[in-house]
Task: structure prediction
Amino acid sequence: MQMNTPPRSTIRLTRRGRIALIATGAVVAATAVTVPLLTLTTEDEGTRRPTSLVIPEGWRTGQVYEAVDKALALPLGSTKRSLAKANLKLPNDAEGNPEGYLYPATYPLDKTVTPESLLALMVNTANKKFSGSPLTAGAQRNAMNVYQAITIASIIQAETSTKADMGKVARVIFNRLERGMPLQMDATLNYALNRFTPTTTTNDTKLESPYNSYQRMGLPPTPISNPGQAAMRAAINPTPGNWLYFVTVKPGDTRFTASYEEQQRNVAEFNRLRRSASPSTSHSPSNSISTPVPGSPSASAPS
Result:
């Protein structure tokens, strides 16, 4: 398939128009957690220290760095600064950025652990998980490399709250890429803005960033989170379908469609439900495909 991902030096802005932005979905609560999940044990002297650190699926590198700092009782920023000497075994496409490769798992914390050794263990775990033949074959089957598959999986992880929807979200991403449409994913924009807000504004979509998938075509230059196995499976085995849009109207009710008109009706229902639940709330839904930008390819999407 055509990924529509030009070299980073040649990525161009899509044609801008007046934006009628009604974004959709809900922020996955786990992605906003910044406190490390620790298992504690009591040592002989009566003190308590962590014996393991849990990295949840969907955390960004910044959250992982902060969790490691807290787990090892280090000054904030120590783990991030340790990257220069960690000698991580990352693919060339990553260009030294470990986003996507700090694998979600439970890691032991003995007295010899350092930020460098812990990050190296996470990356080595990712390489073992990602280098298997099923993933490689799945990526090739969909005309992409493993790094692109991880990037897609990271978007899926950030855009969905249930595993049941992951395959459909993956299909929306593939369908948009194949049609030369911008992804228009709030999750990539939130990554650029380093936030987890459930609100996307018109001004947000004007941000000059390679992660702004409202303005730029193709995939973002790197993953935007550290995905788990379910998201990776969805990225290489998208559910069959012709969907181009989706919106979580209410918890447990995510609607996928190929019709822009039907998407508008679904979004209108979301807004009605949101206003009735919180009359003072006037901001937009988030974390999914939003209403297309007039003047962009998605404004004339096939139904």
